[in-house]
Amino acid sequence: MTEIIAPSSIGLLTGKVVLITGASRGIGEAAARLFVREGASVVLAARDIRALERIASELRAGGGTADAVALDLAEPASIRSTVDRVGELHGRIDGAFNNGGVIQRPGALDATSGIDIDAQFSVNFRAHWTAMTAEAALMREGGGGAIVNTSSIGSRRANAALPAYGAMKRALNSITETAAVTWAPDGIRVNGIAPGGTSTEMIDAWERATPGVIERLSARIPLGRMADPSEIAEVAAWLLSDRASYVTGAIVPVDGGAGA
Ligand code: NAP
User: Is the pLDDT of residue 128 over 70?
Assistant: First the structure.
């Protein structure tokens, strides 16, 4: 495994208030640590409040500003109250990393159940629509902001192993582009990132269901390995920063060349 050396901070997100969903582990946790290092105040959201509190208190101990909020992406009211909480804590929101998501039970289209479809719809698509509209309303009050949604390389082509997941991530790409076009006049940029295989619990769950999948996926990655979660978070940080001021409506691959 290649060792990933954390680059030194350049203050990319200095002074920004950023909400991160799916911050209890994986890519979202890596984003929490990176965004604080880059100067942001973060609000961390997911279901596992104990994990969030642990991460937030570590960040505060290091001099950062971090709060934890319990969130269930399957519940629209929970999403709206999480965004309200950011407003109560900070009076504004500058950035949102809508990253929380769930894998379906791996399997072919004929084996995909209505439960899989419903779960993928509510957590991987509807939740982003609900979150984005609430975030945009708060951003408008502050004169603008930036949103990044986590899609997947699995959205780009037919997805025979994760059919419902691929479909909902592709729907997310569409609504991300629509939001970018709709809210550009409000000074709100909206982009997506499409990670390839990344070493988190999600890929471990897929490996448990389909032994050998990590090796097979890795063999098709030109850079020859899975991503470290921090490498995905880096792209989100840049897209949320003012350095990406002319980027909106993009779905940026972060996949080691796997989709090329
Ligand atoms: P992970 O380690 O499984 O983390 C998923 C995060 O989403 C956790 O923080 C989890 O928190 C949260 N989450 C799941 N269901 C939720 C719900 N109902 N309400 C609130 N939070 C929920 O996976 P990851 O790899 O970091 O995934 C992050 C994003 O990257 C996802 O959108 C995923 O689809 C995408 N992605 C991952 C890969 C990969 O290879 N790992 C590749 C492409 C795209 P709680 O369980 O505490 O709620």
Answer: yes
- Pocket lining: 54 vs ligand 1, CB cutoff 6 Å: no
> Quick one: tokens of 175?
């609504």
Residues 6+ apart with CB under 8 A from 180: 189, 190, 191, 248, 249
Tell me the per-residue pLDDT of 191-216, one tens digit each, with 9 for 90 and over.
999 999 999 999 999 999 999 999 99
- Longest Cα–Cα distance of the chain, Å, equals 51
Which residue's entry shows tokens 């399957």? 74
Q: How confident is the model at residue 6 (pLDDT cuts 50, 70, 90)?
A: confident
Q: Residue type for 217, please?
A: L
- Among residues 35, 97, 125, 165, the one annotated as catalytic is 165
The span from the first CA to the last CA of the chain, in angstroms, equals 22
Taken in order 181, 257, 104, 79, the sign of the CA dihedral is negative
Whether residue 254 has its Cβ less than 6 Å from ligand 1: no
Our answer to whether residue 246 is catalytic in this structure is: no
Q: Which two tokens stand for residue 144?
A: 């603008």
Length of the chain: 260
Distance 25 CA to ligand 1 centre (A): 8
Q: What is the pLDDT of residues 99-112, one digit of tens each?
A: 999 999 999 999 99
Provide the pLDDT confidence category of residue 1 given band limits of 50, 70 and 90. low
Tokens 């929380």 correspond to 100
Q: What are phi and psi of 74, to 5 degrees?
A: -75, -15
Output the six-digit token pair for 30.
Answer: 């890596």
Each domain of the chain, given as residue ranges in start order, spans: 17-254
3-state secondary structure of 178: helix
CATH C-level class of 17-254: alpha beta
- Statement: residue 74 has pLDDT above 70: yes
